[in-house]
Every structure is written in C-alpha cells, then in structure tokens.
Amino acid sequence: MHFLLAFVLIFGLALGIGISSDTTTELGTVSTCVAANTTQLSKGTCTASDPSSPAKLAGLRVGDQVTAFNGKPVSNWNQLGDAIRKAPTGSTAYITVKRDGKTLTLHATLAKVSGRSGAYLGIAPTVVFQPANPIRAAQYAGSAFGQVLVGSAKAVGALPGAVPKLFSKDRGSTAAGQVSSVVGAAEATGSAVAANVGWEYKVSFVLLLIASLNIFVGAFNMLPLLPLDGGHVAVIVWERIRAWFARLRGRPDPGLVDIAKVVPVSFSIFVVLMFFGVALILADIVNPVNIAG
C-alpha cells in the first residue's frame, strides 16, 4: 500500500499539475537581501538592517538565462545550485547570462547566511509545469518511483559514512547532506510552502515528498531483518525451505522457527536504528541543509 499510494500520488501529480523541468537556468526570483538566518531565508522576508543580496548588487534580473558560473557552463538548475554552494563564501563569482539576446558577464561577492551551509547568491529558477497525458504520466511515475527507490538505497548505504559529517559546516556538500529525518522533511516542506513561488511548485513539492517517504518506508520495512515486516517474511520463507528439505529426506516438518533465539539480534538492530534516527534529528535541528542558491 505504501508503494501503491506513492505511485498514485506521482501519477496524479503529472496528470493534474504537470511535470516540472530542471533543464532551465532562467531566473524566476532574485532576492533583495541576505537573510539573517535560515528561518528568515525560508520565509523570504527582509528587514531594514539586512544587506542587499549578491544577486541584486550584481544586477541580476528575473528572466536572465544563466549560461555559466565562474567560467564553467551550466545547463540546468542542479548544476548551477551545486556550483554556487561549493564556491567559497566571500569570493567573487562571475555569472554569465543571456538578456534580451545579449550575453553579459556580471560579478557578485558571495554571501553567507547564518545556519546555512555553502555560499549564497540569492536566486531561484523559473519553474515550468507541463501537464502530461495518462501514458506519459504513468511513465513519469514509474521513472520517479525507481529513482526514489535507488536513491533511498544509496542514502541508507551512505548513512554510516555520513554520520561524521552530519554536524560539519560542509554537510550540504557531502553524503550527509543527502540524508534527513522527519525534522528535515518538515523544515523542507515549510520552506517550500513559504517560498515566493507559484502554487504548482508548492503542491508538487509536498506530494513528491509524501510519495518519497512512502516509498522509503515501504522499502525499508521489507528488509529481511526483525522486527521489520521483511524479517517476518524471511522467517516464514526459511520455515518453508526447512519443511521442503525435511520432506525430501523423509523427515517430519521441523515446525516453526524459535523467534526467541533472534531477539538479541532484533534488539541490536533496533538500537542501531534508534542511534541513526536520533543523530539525524539532532543534525537537522542544529545543522540543517538549505538547498536554495
């Protein structure tokens, strides 16, 4: 049911609102200030004491098409956002844009937002949604489902190595920036809802987040480890295998597996899961990851 709900949500999103594209580097928002902290940044509000944003000082405008950052060509928003966050805070960045058919190179001194990892420029992309037909929507849902499933597996696999970076200043640029707790998910949702963007983006973000959480929970719950459901399935499968071998050798069915023997293992797994869960929650509270540029 977790998987079915996720597929239906993604399918309905593609069919009703549309599929967004990250292939554009056209600016949809140019912030006017450098927020004092991540909370103010999420709300998109400015006070009289906030300094002007690097993007505003550089002369960037809504509608500009960014083609290169520090001399490196960028073709989608992910490339541009990564380049901004990885650039040193306080350094001078050179942004090449197309405006009214002309190519311009503007320069900006990248800023720092308190509590946020990475440099800050103060821009956000134009998000365009194209409604899909049922066939395309089903294809998109299947593709997105697979990507989330693979991404979840990679995130879980990277979690042990990511723990040392959860509380580091460069968390956003490491594997620790790709894993989050319910606190991080709630903060990301709040930031998306409070952002100065269209309702399509807000609804799309929330629905995709819900779908992703359902896929992750469904997949995680099927791991062959007790006390997860997958562990109980594994025990039943092992019982049937034992019974089959016993019949082949003319012996009686050995019966049910003694679950009590694996209680210490189950308890150990529970402790490990609790450790990772608490570590992620604490990291998301004291060292949150902000994905804005």
Structure commentary:
- With about 290 residues, the chain is of the alpha+beta class.
- It has two domains: about 1-15 and about 130-220, no CATH class; about 20-125, Pdz3 Domain.
- Helices cover about 50% and strands about 10% of the residues.
- The protein has nine helices and eight strands.
- It has helices at about 1-15, 40-45, 55-60, 75-85, 135-160, 180-195, 200-220, 230-250, 265-285, and strands at about 20, 25-30, 65-70, 70-75, 90-100, 100-110, 125, 130.
- A four-stranded antiparallel β-sheet has the order 4-3-5-6.
- A hairpin with a 2-residue loop joins β5 (about 90-100) and β6 (about 100-110).
- α5 (about 135-160) packs across α7 (about 200-220).
- The longest helix has 29 residues, at about 135-160.
- The two termini are about 35 Å apart.
Largest sheet: 4 strands, antiparallel
| Spatial order of strands in the largest sheet | 4-3-5-6
Mean pLDDT: 82
Number of domains: 2
Please give the count of helices. Answer: 9
- Tell me the β content: 5-15%
Provide the fold topology.
Blueprint: H1 2-16, E1 19-20, E2 27-30, H2 38-43, H3 54-58, E3 65-69, E4 72-73, H4 77-86, E5 92-99, E6 102-109, E7 123-125, E8 129-130, H5 134-162, H6 182-194, H7 199-221, H8 229-248, H9 263-286
